[in-house]
Specification:
globular; alpha+beta; 210 residues
Length: 210
């Protein structure tokens, strides 16, 4: 029986991998078909850039929905049924934390230092994804503490709308702890509320403890 279960699990994972790729292609094709049938008939200048570099004309919400709600979340739900929600939580937290730890040193090398004020610049001058994916205010910002109050989060909205808040917390929110530690081992995140878990805001508080 154990062997049969193992084979079933392996087959299911292979199925998810293959169908996800095919489904993404289908979704992109369907979106193009709809766009072609609803586009303004007025001629527009041809985009001469390579097709990979052309503007997709998608909103930030559409981009994140495509990235998460269309295929990743359904795949993770199937995997949770296969290995159990607790095992999936552990796997996602381990994987995302490890990815952060491996990628952060490269980013830190491009900065003047790894102090808390430098870390705060991520939120003071956010990139386009963070700027358009979250609404927050900086409550405190000094040499020893950085506190954020996040009132809206596109990631939380997408995962909660898909009834996948638990997956979202392990896959998205839990990585915040690893991000702080990877940036500087002395920075510790204290947080008791998240939108992903149903609270009315996220209370990120980063403290330099060493």
């Amino acid at each position: 029986m154990a062997g049969e279960k193992s084979q079933t699990s392996t087959s299911r994972r292979k199925f998810l991998s293959s169908t996800t790729s095919l489904a993404c292609l289908f979704c992109l094709g369907a979106r193009s078909l709809v766009a072609s049938t609803t586009a303004d008939s007025t001629d527009t200048p041809a985009d001469t850039r390579h097709r990979f570099l052309r503007d997709s004309r998608m909103t930030y919400e559409e981009v994140l929905k495509f990235a998460y709600a269309s295929w990743l979340i359904p795949a993770m739900k199937v995997l949770a049924e296969d290995i159990g929600p607790d095992a999936l939580d552990e796997m996602l937290r381990k994987i995302t934390s490890e990815v952060v730890r491996r990628r952060m040193p490269e980013r830190v090398r491009s900065l003047p230092d790894n102090s808390l004020p430098t870390f705060a610049r991520i939120f003071e001058k956010p990139g386009p994804i963070l700027e358009n994916g979250a609404v927050y205010e900086i409550v405190e910002n000094n040499e020893r503490a950085l506190e954020l109050r996040v009132s809206e989060c596109l990631w939380a909205k997408i995962f909660c709308d898909a009834d996948a808040a638990r997956i979202g917390f392990s896959y998205i929110c839990f990585a915040d702890y690893a991000t702080a530690q990877a940036f500087n081992p002395g920075i510790v995140l204290h947080r008791s509320k998240t939108l992903m878990q149903g609270d009315d805001h996220c209370n990120h508080r980063y403290v330099m403890e060493t």
